[in-house]
């Protein structure tokens, strides 16, 4: 699927809108800064960001109260009434926290189905998402627009390696992902746990928090766990193979060999090699006469 009027062009629209931020007036012309009633602005239903730092939000609110809003939010007109937020949810929340009635905004005219990608791009570029939200944002953009990690890196100005490593964190268990989202453990810790089963991940994650393990110490712990699991698997494999006593079959083996059949009996199997239909008849005759 080609990007067409996708990420690149939409990013261009937002950039143009921000570059026109000095063209302030009180009308609703596109790409002009306007004052909007906060109650007329609806949140973006596709906003990927779910967690907001209340302390930082209060700091932003105090700053806006003292110095005003330096960067307007971005909205589009709703089909029914009011506006839908495209970018700037923290700024909007900070205004509400400061009990302000209006907010500076830029109105852009784009299709409503583009809301998701604009919200994702805006948050990714501003580093507002926690590491797991960021990973899901990358995954959404890649899946919905059929782009490669390399193409995405050029759109969001992140290295391809960084994007790939972040996406790999989605392979971790939900338990570990929640700890990552809450900054209880680092992405470096999470990366070390890739390849472990869910129970092992829980053990390692709890050890990291309880013992305040560094990434290097976590690597050592993971190696021990993997080594212990490999040893256990080897022991299980060895216990499955038993050496049986084939003495009761010695007579049968000798008689089969006399019929020019190749017979092999060792450990836990008894094998008669068949090379022709005649061999099958020899075996049938032997066991038929025997039983």
TrEMBL record:
Record protein name field: ParB/RepB/Spo0J family partition protein
Classification via CDD domains: SPO0J_N
Keywords: Chromosome partition, DNA-binding
Residues in ParB-like N-terminal domain copies: 34-124
Pfam families (UniProt xref): HTH_ParB (PF17762), ParB_N (PF02195)
GO BP of this protein: chromosome segregation; positive regulation of sporulation resulting in formation of a cellular spore
GO MF, one example: DNA binding
Family: Belongs to the ParB family.
Organism: Arcobacter arenosus
GO CC annotation terms, alphabetical: chromosome
């Amino acid at each position: 699927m080609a990007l067409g009027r996708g990420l690149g062009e939409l990013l261009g629209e937002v950039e143009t809108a921000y570059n026109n931020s000095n063209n302030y007036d009180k009308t609703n012309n596109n790409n002009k800064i306007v004052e909007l009633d906060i109650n007329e602005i609806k949140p973006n239903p596709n906003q990927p960001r779910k967690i907001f730092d209340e302390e930082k939000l209060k700091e932003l609110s105090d700053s806006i109260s003292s110095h005003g809003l330096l960067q307007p939010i971005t909205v589009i007109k709703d089909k029914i009434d009011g506006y839908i937020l495209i970018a700037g949810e923290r700024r909007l929340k900070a205004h509400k926290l400061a009990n302000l009635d209006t907010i500076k905004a830029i109105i852009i005219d784009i299709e409503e189905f583009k809301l998701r990608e604009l919200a994702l791009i805006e948050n990714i570029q501003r580093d507002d998402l926690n590491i797991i939200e960021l990973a899901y944002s990358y995954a959404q953009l890649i899946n919905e627009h059929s782009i490669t990690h390399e193409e995405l890196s050029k759109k969001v100005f992140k290295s391809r390696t960084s994007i790939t490593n972040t996406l790999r964190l989605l392979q971790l268990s939900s338990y570990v992902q929640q700890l990552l989202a809450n900054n209880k453990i680092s992405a470096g810790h999470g990366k070390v746990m890739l390849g472990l089963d869910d129970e092992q991940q829980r053990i390692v994650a709890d050890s990291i928090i309880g013992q305040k393990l560094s990434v290097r110490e976590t690597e050592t712990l993971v190696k021990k766990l993997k080594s212990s699991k490999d040893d256990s698997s080897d022991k299980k494999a060895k216990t499955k193979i038993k050496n049986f006593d084939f003495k009761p079959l010695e007579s049968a083996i000798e008689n089969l060999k006399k019929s020019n059949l190749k017979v092999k009996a060792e450990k836990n199997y008894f094998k008669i090699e068949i090379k022709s239909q005649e061999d099958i008849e020899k075996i049938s005759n032997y066991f038929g006469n025997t039983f």
